Amino acid sequence: MRAALRALGETGITLGAVLLLFCAYLVWGTGSYTGEQQTLLRRQLVEARKNIVRTGRLGEVEVGGALAMLRIPRLGDLYRYAVVEGVGWEQLRMGPGHYPGSALPGKVGNFVISGHRTTYAAPFNRLDELRRGDYIVVDARDARYTYRVTGKRVVDPTDIDVIAPNPAHPDRRPTRALITLSTCHPEYSAAQRLVVTGELEGRRDHRPWRAGRKQEPSRADRKPEPPRADRPPDGPAAGTGVKGDHAADGHSTDGPAGGHSTDGPADGRPAHGPAGGHDTSG
């Protein structure tokens, strides 16, 4: 009897150690694969911009290809991720993924990006730290697009309206250029989705044949001006043109697109849910 109990105990310890090692691999080990893929995607972006210079054509990005660089100043100067086209299991292992069929960077509609929160470098692990008015910078192949955060909320995976071209009014045609970042919530779970929304504020061209156009520095790259003596300092969202407050839990009290209203007939939208039916937590 003692021998049997001893054998059972040793087996349990062994299984526990294996499980811990596997969990450690999921949390930290998968990041090495993503790092390698990110290097390749960044090289693709460099080559794509060179191709634009040579041909003057933007071209399409196939699933698995590099679409843009994502930068969020709130999360630090080192926060830079190449966005891959597609939100399948293989694409999300490479980095944040763009929903095929949603708007492209800077275009009218909803530019939707999904990303892992706990594995494969966890690009959206700190998405919950974003605040209304924060910058989201997207360096696409043709231009730099600067968005401002308009809201943050937690939704069910079945709430597909958040990725519609016009999230506030899914049955109406979009009239603004929006961005939606989506990841699993809470951490280590796919029970819900954390969604951050934003609206386009500015564009700065990369294309050399548009060099004659006056290029203003992106507001996200400008140094903040010191407050003047004849006016009070701006508030957290001053100058954004965004209305609404945060609820006590830190989520926006506005809808998925900041509560703005648009008119027009219905338009198409992606067929997947807020995380494309994929578990972005694991």
From TrEMBL:
Keyword Nucleotide-binding annotated: no
Domain of life: Bacteria
CDD domains linked: Sortase_E
UniProt keyword list: Hydrolase
Protein name: Class E sortase
Annotated region described as Disordered, given as residue ranges: 203-282
Bias (Basic and acidic residues): 213-233, 243-252
Origin species: Streptosporangium pseudovulgare
